[in-house]
Amino acid sequence: MLTALLFFVLAFIGCGMFALVMSRVGHQPSSRVVSSAVLGYLLAGAAIWWLTPPEWTLSFPQTLAASVDAKTYGHPVEHSAESLLVLMLVACVFGSAVFTAITAFGGRLAQRVQHSRSV
Length: 119
Fold this sequence. Notes:
The chain has 119 residues and is mainly α. The protein is 84% helix and 0% strand. The chain has 5 helices and no strands. The protein is elongated and about 65 Å long.
């Protein structure tokens, strides 16, 4: 269980570091960009969990445990839990990256469009 959770924590930290770099590149306040990255990470993870089929009856902590415990849950459940967690992890990182990019560069793009309309 800790192994799977560790991947989520490390990905979360990596997304935060990426957001800090992008805030400097995009000349935006780092708090805004990092907050946006956190929001994107959490929303993407929640969306994947919400889209999980109703047949999946395990809670999130049970899914974490099942992903590393074939003896208790069986190999088919372990494989399904691993697949779900990998999909969720990829979605979290992608959601964070998209929200970071929009926040870091969207403001500059909107200013350019507004400036070009006023000229």
